[in-house]
Write a structure and sequence with these properties.
Layout: H1 5-14, E1 21-24, H2 31-42, E2 45-50, H3 67-78, E3 87-92, H4 100-110, E4 115-119, H5 123-129, E5 138-141, H6 147-153, H7 157-165, H8 168-173, H9 175-188, H10 192-201, H11 204-225, H12 231-239, H13 241-245, H14 263-276, E6 279-285, E7 296-305, H15 308-315, H16 327-349, E8 354-357, E9 364-371, E10 374-380, H17 389-398, E11 403-407, E12 412-413, E13 417-421, H18 428-435
Parallel strand pairs: 1-4, 1-5, 2-3, 3-4, 6-8, 10-11, 11-13
Antiparallel strand pairs: 6-7, 8-9, 9-10, 12-13
């Protein structure tokens, strides 16, 4: 399978100001495969160290940060002589070796010619516990496979090309086929193992079993890696996700986790799940302004899952819904559709949005997107009813350059409103640039 992040990694390789790179992302999104595949495609040799498995090297950085000594130890362990020009050095599960993150600083300062990538399933948590020198490394986020990557894995290159060139007329012709593929993505999601299994077998039952295995692995990680006092709360928050998103107003409600629960009891729990990469948290704004962070209401937020397929598995979503016209899109009050859009905004466009509601919460816009000192409201419609009262209210009140709706309807660009088909949301950034 091809991953779009390989292109970004190649840009890192070619950059004159290259620094050691840390690849962040949740367990099982494909970090190890991508690093090895990148090395295979773009380097003559790969020196791969997994600090969880190669326990002899877990103490490598405790003595000192002498680069010559470290390189010699890596050579002895791997049997590969590292060459600065043609060797990719991979530190996998980097958080398992004390001092390994700090060592990257010394590689950057004393041996910047070496190509080094580090990654780990608990890297986000480790970085919050480590005093890390700013400016000495680069970061790259890795996410589950996007809808575009899913189409490529399914061999639907022609459909993918239609989306890339924004051929709206041909998209209308093949609308039903694209919607059918979108349904499949809703169920399968973007976890690489699930996508590969479905591409090979086209068996939804096998996919669901794989998703359950992934969820079980996450549950084990809660017990193994989280502070003992918050493990029960992590499980309660994680398992409350379907009920949180099944509400019309998807603002996170502590009472759905546990009756009488309060914010201060769960702040560390939510932070742990965010750092681990299992949830996305987006904050409410009451007024669009710059900088947008200064308008965030930190007490009001929504949480979303890492992946639409995992959310479906966590919810016990039945594969039979795939056969019922468009019911899958509206299930759980459109929660899967909103989850899908957020996932694509992040993975395809690098957009981490906010959402807007007025003080009475009678009007709410699903996402607010910042681009080039402009804010664009984005409303997600899973149903055929395309009335956009909240979006219209926002537009009249704040007069953005363009308001955007995404739905199953065909592309339309009206006076104040642009409708983008759900399956073409990957193109939202280029379309916003066209407005500007």
């Amino acid at each position: 399978m091809e991953r779009a992040i390989l292109t970004k990694l190649n840009h890192w390789k070619q950059a004159k100001t290259r620094k050691p790179l840390l690849l962040k992302g949740a367990r099982q999104v494909g970090k190890t495969w991508v690093m090895k595949e990148f090395g295979r495609k773009y380097y003559e040799q790969v020196l791969y160290i997994n600090f969880e498995r190669d326990k002899l090297l877990q103490n490598l950085f405790k003595t000192d940060f002498d680069i010559s000594r470290i390189l010699s130890a890596l050579q002895v362990q791997s049997g590969i002589v590292p060459n600065a020009e043609n060797t990719l050095i991979i530190f996998d599960e980097i958080q398992e070796a004390e001092g390994a993150l700090t060592a990257l600083k010394y590689f950057q300062e004393e041996a910047p010619e070496y190509h080094i990538i580090g990654a780990g399933s608990l890297l986000g948590i480790a970085l919050n516990k480590t005093s890390f020198p700013v400016g000495k490394v680069q970061f790259l986020e890795m996410h589950p496979m996007s809808f575009s990557e899913f189409l490529e894995a399914m061999g639907e290159i022609s459909i993918l090309n239609l989306l890339k060139v924004k051929d709206w007329k041909l998209m209308q012709t093949f609308h039903e086929k694209i919607v059918a593929l979108l349904k499949q993505y809703y169920f399968v999601g973007g976890m690489p193992e699930a996508v590969k299994n479905y591409a090979d077998s086209r068996n939804f039952e096998e996919v669901r079993e794989l998703q359950k295995d992934i969820l079980a692995a996450y549950e084990l990680d809660f017990s193994k890696h989280a502070p003992a006092q918050i493990v029960p709360k992590i499980r309660m928050v994680w398992n409350s996700l379907p009920s949180q998103l099944a509400r019309e107003n998807k603002k996170f409600i502590y009472g759905l986790v546990k009756t009488g629960a309060r914010a201060r009891e769960y702040e560390d729990t939510l932070n742990w799940l965010v750092d681990y990469g299992l949830i996305h948290r987006i904050y409410r704004i009451t007024k669009p302004g710059f900088p947008i962070r200064s308008y965030e209401d930190l007490k009001a937020f929504k949480i979303f899952a890492l992946d639409t397929g995992l959310l479906g598995a966590l919810s016990g979503l039945d594969a039979q819904l795939l056969l019922q016209k468009n019911k899958l899109f509206t299930e759980f009050k459109g929660a899967l559709t909103e989850q899908f859009i957020l996932q694509q905004l992040i993975s395809e466009n690098g957009i981490h949005p906010n959402y807007w509601s007025n003080d009475t919460s009678s009007n709410e816009v699903d996402f607010i997107i910042e681009h080039q000192q402009n804010l664009y409201p984005l409303e997600v419609k899973a149903e055929e009813n395309l009335q956009s009262k909240s979006l219209k209210s926002y537009h009249q009140q704040f007069e953005p350059k363009m308001s955007i709706r995404t739905s199953l309807s065909h592309f339309r660009n009206e006076d104040w409103l642009m409708n983008i088909p759900l399956y073409a949301i990957r193109e939202i950034r280029s379309m916003i640039q066209g407005v500007e």
